[in-house]
Amino acid sequence: MKLFNYLLAGILCASAIAVSAQHRADPQKLVDPESFSMILLGDPQGYTKYDINQPLFDLCTAWIADNIEPLKIKAVLCTGDLVEQNDNNVLNRKMLNQTSREMWEAASQALKRLDNKVPYIIAAGNHDYGYKAAENGRTYFPDYIPFERNSTWRNICVSEFPNREGRASLENSAFEFDEPGWGKILVIAVEFVPRDEVLQWAKDLVNKPEYKNHKVIFITHSYLDIGNKRVTKDGYKISPQNSGQAIWEKLIYPSSNIRLVLCGHVGRGTGEYENNVAYRVDKNSAGKDVSQMTFNVQYVGGGPEGNGGDGWLRILEFMPDGKTIKVRTYSPLFGISKLTRHLAHRTAPYDQFDIILE
């Protein structure tokens, strides 16, 4: 019996070593070992709306969790639309096979892989409100994404603003990071087509003495359209609202320290990569460049009824010079196998480039 116990212990020990030392088919590394990264997760609604697609959302978050150390991941930034419909039980079989509750539960389960490991910061999207698509401001977001579920938020969340129902929620929230080479970074996420009072909250926040010298990253769901034009009108009943151009005029342009805007929402159903991304740079009122980037995945895995996004993520590598962010677009779905890893990197100029924040 003792011999058996020794052998069993040896097997378990060897198995543990094998798992911890497992070699990935396509391991990702930082360009500079002194860098750190944040991961951009585009609209995941295409994953959650079909049960057969939901494992791809799990794969994305599992890959992120697995790479927290090698990529020095400090945060996951999500452009919203966690679900296809916020509050609906009647299934349209042409576009989904999950009820709203099933979609919210799937999103919550995928994000659970990140809980207590890394902060994820989400800009709630139009499909996260109302019944099917932002008919009103009701949302289950704070029910499934409560503050207490992820301990990594506790020491970095510095401000929040009530949602449209008057509830405390991470829909409008700000997080502070302090990283070597970059100093203080403030990440602000806001609700879909934010109200004036939300924009005023964000404006007041970035102008406070303790944050005025921070580099600010602003995340909102709808802002920059395909073709690199800011959205001027969002055709949803939710009210009041501010679209991309209004957000620029009321908040981004007047704020000297908002240097990067991230969004999703828009795309073309045909699925070509270039028709689901956008990027532009404009000067703010202080004469500083503001980079604005759209990244959406819901159509690129076979169109609106495809697999939800082929697992595409963006790795934002913050270089040690304190001003350069290297953007690369990567899919763990393809990278997980030696047979498909040659497909795991999108290297066109619109998918791999540098952002300079002077």
Plain-language structure description:
This protein has 358 residues and is of the alpha/beta class. It has a single domain, classed as Purple Acid Phosphatase, chain A, domain 2 (4-Layer Sandwich). Helices cover 22% and strands 22% of the residues. The protein has eight helices and 14 strands. The strands form two sheets. Strands 1, 2, 3, 11, 12, 13 and 14 form a seven-stranded mixed sheet that branches. It has a seven-stranded mixed sheet with strand order 4-5-6-7-8-10-9, with helices on one face. Strand 7, helix 7 and strand 8 form a beta-alpha-beta unit. Helix 3 packs parallel to helix 4 and helix 6 packs parallel to helix 7. The chain starts with a helix and ends with a strand. The N terminus is likely disordered. GO terms for molecular function: hydrolase activity. Keywords: Signal. InterPro entries: Calcineurin-like_PHP, Metallo-depent_PP-like, STPP_CPPED1. This is Metallophosphoesterase. Pfam families: Metallophos.
Topology:
Blueprint: H1 2-20, E1 36-41, H2 45-48, H3 54-66, E2 73-78, H4 100-112, E3 120-122, H5 141-144, E4 157-160, E5 173-179, E6 183-189, H6 196-206, E7 215-219, H7 244-252, E8 258-263, E9 277-283, E10 289-295, E11 313-318, E12 324-330, H8 332-335, E13 345-346, E14 353-356
Parallel strand pairs: 1-2, 2-3, 6-7, 7-8, 8-10
Antiparallel strand pairs: 1-11, 4-5, 5-6, 9-10, 11-12, 12-13, 12-14
